[in-house]
Amino acid sequence: MPPAALALAVSLGDPAGVGPELLASAWLSRVPRRLPVFFALGGAGLLRAAARTRGLDLPVRVIADPAQAQGCFDAALPVLDCGDAAYAPGKPARAGAELALASLTEATRLAVSGAASGVVTGPIAKALLAEVGFHHPGQTEFVADACGIAPEDAVMMLAAPSLRTVPLTVHIPLSAVPGAIGIELILRRARIAVAALTRDFGIARPRLAVAALNPHAGEAGRMGSEEAEIIAPAIARLQAEGIAATGPHPADALFTPRARGGYDLALCMYHDQALIPLKTLDFDAGVNVTLGLPIVRTSPDHGTAFAIAGRGSADPGATIAALRLAGECAARRAAARVLA
Amino acid sequence: MPPAALALAVSLGDPAGVGPELLASAWLSRVPRRLPVFFALGGAGLLRAAARTRGLDLPVRVIADPAQAQGCFDAALPVLDCGDAAYAPGKPARAGAELALASLTEATRLAVSGAASGVVTGPIAKALLAEVGFHHPGQTEFVADACGIAPEDAVMMLAAPSLRTVPLTVHIPLSAVPGAIGIELILRRARIAVAALTRDFGIARPRLAVAALNPHAGEAGRMGSEEAEIIAPAIARLQAEGIAATGPHPADALFTPRARGGYDLALCMYHDQALIPLKTLDFDAGVNVTLGLPIVRTSPDHGTAFAIAGRGSADPGATIAALRLAGECAARRAAARVLA
Fold it and tell me: How far is A250 from chain B (nearest CA, A)?
């Protein structure tokens, strides 16, 4: 008998944020949205309470092993216990941060061990988590560390229905961006991204559009030299390696419907250059995917939204999209293993 | 008898670019698109030749005075002669640049003198124009100079169906942006923009959303200090003056449908921050409006597009939008003069 198909491990995120209610909402839409099988790490009581604030009755089944998720997912949201907390939406507290950290740690561990097909992480509040022993800049670095991957080789990609982007630099001041971009960094990120799009997204020869840093792509050096000195040489090297890279493209014209038809991924120079078009086009459906890891990891691309937690207005679209995308990537990896 | 209503003066732009064919195309759609009366400066033969490349037969009427435009606009595109050129799409040349400069100079002069209700400028190639005596960074500065307005008081606004943005800084390298923004600059631009939205756009109390410079609006200083040191104090001063200003808003979340419903104008810190969302949402309908001038001035927000000139594929949407918007602003000014 073949082993049971693996399920996705899902961390709760901060229990005072929108994570638990969106997870409950996602499970309730599992049939029409064709979601892959997943289970939550902890929070059985919390999840039921969060669902009630949206007028939803959430059946929960506590499981003892990830392998049991498959058997009960149709009837109830499987929860592998790793703690619980009182539900106090909009009121983050130390006990909640401890649960969030335990949930993230355990979900990641199960994906790394091979007991789960991947990990989907709920939104956390970094400052609160830091107070209970979380010493990474964000969940991406935490997951990379758990995989034994250097943080610079864990590449953040934002994926939405209309667009995929990778920001070359992320959480640094805008004034630090020009000094942080470089040929080697572009090469490293681009190679990881292209390999991941092939392996996890099934794109045989990914087309990479590289954005310029300066307005009008520097207009032949009149408004900045990074295009000529850094970005164009990096693109030439990628092309020499056989990667279908183009650019540097003026960033303002890179996200029109016609331009988007010409590439599979836009490599952007800084956070807002990658995030403005993505959120403008697909605000409630953005998924944060970590490329370059031995495991599949996705996350809804929004924060804890403490201000609207428990009010029923948070949109589950990004959580649903994160679950679906993780399921698709995991299925491609599983199929590749069978063929290998 | 009341004086004849004034018409808009339209410059050709570079005759080798898409300007002439789009102007011809716009005139041919004057009835369904309800365009205001306008006339071209020069290029009677050129315009007819450009129209023919799109399979269009353009009737042209050479007029001797702007006041004659109103009488013939229904039947033909009025052209006030200031020269002509052979039509060679995609092949910019010195004679064409001279015609473009003459057309721009004369169209602007007529708006400044009051003989035209405003000026709509076609797309030029700055480098070519510089060779024939154009000594301004762009048409905005040229028009401001002709009006006797300091260039820093001529505010570029991008207007499209979904969004209006003003970039605080424009054609400078990204590395120069943090050093170029300042409290006084924000105040100056914001005051001009708010006054213009009231006078020319009929918005009684314009709501101004001010974008942050850094990712996550600096996240309480962890990713940059400009929000706390420059942007927030400027917003506080605007609010103290009675201006409905909010922010600094994280730029990536400022252009979602819900966020856009909360303001009339987004004041952005740099070129691509203002242009990425605008072109992503409304690529073929963006209008460049110069605020703060004694005259009305708009322009389609695209370049000469030499590569596609004469091929019939250039979209007249932005030219049509620029003509309509100039007509609306001019009508509001005329109505205000009647009431005054």
Answer: 9
Residue A287 located in a structural domain: no
Nearest chain B alpha carbon to A277: B277
Judgement on whether residues A99 and A187 belong to the same structural domain of the protein: no
Q: Which of B16, B15, B14, B13 is nearest to B91 (CA)?
A: B16
Residues from chain B contacting residue A278 (CB–CB below 8 Å): 252
Q: How far is CA A172 from the centre of its chain?
A: 19
Question: Token match 């509040």: residue?
Answer: A125
Q: Are A60 and A48 in contact (CB under 8 A)?
A: yes
The ipTM is 0.91
What is the C-alpha separation between A304 and A157, in angstroms, rounded?
Answer: 19
Q: At B339, which amino acid appears?
A: L
Domain that holds residue A235: 155-277
Strand order in B287-291's β-sheet? B60-63, B77-80, B38-41, B8-10, B118-120, B297-300, B287-291, B155-160, B163-167, B265-268, B207-211, B244-249
For A30-40, b/e burial (b = at least 16 CB within 10 A) is beeeebbbbbb
Q: Which two tokens stand for residue A314?
A: 């948070």
Q: What are B227-256's pLDDT values in tens digits?
A: 999 999 999 999 999 999 999 999 999 999
Using a CB–CB cutoff of 8 Å, tell me whether A137 touches chain B. no
Reported pTM: 0.93
Number of other residues whose CB lies within 10 A of the CB of residue B280: 26
